[in-house]
Write a structure and sequence with these properties.
mainly alpha
Length: about 70
């Protein structure tokens, strides 16, 4: 099943990690659950960890998008 398009604009960041972290990212890619390369594995791992922190109450939910609120009122 295809996902809906992400309503948020992507922001590009540069991330430098050490050799051990690269090793872990490669293991995540090998599972087939975290994308096909290190960059995708880092993106998925970070996204999943943010969701975990939110569910544990350790990180606040980001405020809703204004455009989403306007669309809901129509």
């Amino acid at each position: 099943m295809a996902r809906d398009a992400n309503p948020l604009k992507s922001e590009q960041i540069t991330l430098s990690v050490n050799a051990q972290t690269v090793w872990y990212l490669d293991r995540l890619v090998e599972t087939g659950l975290y994308g096909n390369n290190r960059t995708e594995a880092a993106r998925v791992a970070l996204y999943d960890h943010c969701k975990l922190l939110i569910s544990q109450g350790a990180l606040q939910m980001a405020p809703p998008l204004l455009s989403r609120d306007i669309t809901a009122l129509r």
